[in-house]
Specification:
By secondary structure, the chain is mainly α. The longest helix is centred in the last third of the chain and has 27 residues.
C-alpha cells in the first residue's frame, strides 16, 4: 500500500477541524462515494450496535514486546488455533448428515 493510498481519507477526515469534515458519499450525486459521516444516533439505531470498548486494557502493566517476542506469541496462538480447528474437523467428521 502506498503512502498516498489514504490521501482522500485524510482530506475528508480533516483532523485540524472536525466540523469541516467532508464526506464523498451522496445518495443522489455520488452513490459510490467511499467516505461518509454517521450520527451517533444513526449508529445506535442499528441492530447489534455496540460502542462498548471496555475490553480494551488500559493498565500500566501492559508489556512492551520486542518483535521476536511478539512473533513467538503469535506463533503460539496460531498453533493453538490450528489444534482447535483440527479437533473440530475431527469431531465434525464423525457426524453423519
Amino acid at each position: 500500500m502506498s503512502p498516498r493510498s489514504l490521501d482522500d481519507f485524510v482530506a475528508c477526515y480533516n483532523a485540524d477541524n472536525i466540523d469541516a469534515r467532508n464526506e464523498t458519499y451522496n445518495a443522489e450525486t455520488n452513490p459510490n462515494g467511499r467516505w461518509r459521516k454517521f450520527d451517533v444516533e444513526d449508529i445506535l439505531r442499528r441492530d447489534k450496535t455496540s460502542l462498548d470498548i471496555t475490553w480494551i486494557k488500559q493498565t500500566s502493566d501492559d508489556a512492551d514486546y520486542t518483535l521476536p517476542e511478539l512473533m513467538e506469541i503469535i506463533q503460539e496462538k496460531s498453533e493453538n488455533i490450528k489444534t482447535a480447528v483440527d479437533e473440530l474437523v475431527s469431531l465434525l467428521s464423525n457426524i453423519k448428515e
